Amino acid sequence: MAKTKTDRSLPLDQILIENSTYQSNKLRKRLLKSGIKLLCCEMCNRTEWMGSPIPLELDHINGNKYDNRLFNLRIICPNCHATTNTYRGKNIGSYK
Prior knowledge:
The chain is α+β, with helices and mostly antiparallel strands and 96 residues long. It has one domain (12-89). It is 20% helix and 12% strand. The protein has 3 helices and 4 strands. The protein has helices at residues 5-8, 24-34, 78-81, and strands spanning 48-49, 52-53, 57-60, 73-76. The protein has a two-stranded antiparallel ribbon with strand order 1-2. The protein has a two-stranded antiparallel sheet with strand order 3-4. The protein starts with a helix and ends in a 15-residue tail after the last helix. The model has no long low-confidence stretch (mean pLDDT 88).
């Protein structure tokens, strides 16, 4: 029997580590699908924006996109993400 896509998925415990190269967009989807993270912004708690589901992004709190330890990850909306000190690599080279 052929393996399904789910069977080939890397276990989360091998992804939620420091120095992980797993893609952030895929990780965001896995965290939401597994219920580890909820479909709301962890900063403003919004689930909707202008009557539609709010888009959510994966934020690496310390700014290091390779640090996928769970305590370093949060799901936030683009509005809140833009207010962080690490938004879009503002802190590249100065990881905590």
